[in-house]
Amino acid sequence: MEEIGRVYHYLLKHRSIESKPQLRKSRSDETLVASILRSASIDQLERFNEFLAPQGFKLVEFDDLTRGVAVAGRIWVLARTGEVSAPSFLSNERVYSEMNIRGKDSRETSAVWFLHIWLIYLSLIYTRVGRGVSEVSSYVDATFSREVLEESVLEHIAHIRQMGLSDGASSKVVAILDSEKGKDVSRRVSAFLKLMTAAGLIQESEKNEYQQTLLGAYEIAEHYDKSLRIPIDNTLDNIVNIVAPNNEDKDTEELTDGID
After folding, report:
1. Is the pTM of this model over 0.90?
2. Which domain of life is it from (predicted)?
């Protein structure tokens, strides 16, 4: 039980365990917790999942038949079940705090910026490469650079400025996005990447080069219907029409529904 407790606390912190990491060095204790899981009996794993279920989690194991998993390797992820509310790894408060780059940004401003960069991110790794949400193993090809993400955000802002308040766009959202300066955009993107990396949804493969993680791909595939939809081109062109929260004190649960 003590060993499973070690695994549990490790997963709460990192959300994934790799027996043979491909893009990084093993974390502290990772080899140990991986060996605990590999030697666990079916009964022990079932009881562990019974323990996780009331918390809104389940342990999902992937072997080397999954692309990106090393030969004879295993990857375990702590995934949300969607049946009960699980603790949020990207809580609303954390998003508000990290995206508040000026120190005086409203919660509404932080929410709008995270949401728009999130949709652009989804477009880069799904829409533009013709990838379906169920294609979990394609996470190994879901790469992008910080530069491309930032350029895409700048293009989106330019499009918003050109479009203005046409097509029923929210004046609040237009004002928030239109007031951003170039350096501010760079800082917003940095904050977004920091949040996503900390949540285990992306990882830095090289300097300023990122890849979606197996956990990130699995979460999208499992919770697509309950979270932000993958945008088609027309949707991306018009996401300025997404209305910002009307009440800054109101929880914007949708903001992190698909990224916990």
Report:
1. no
2. Bacteria
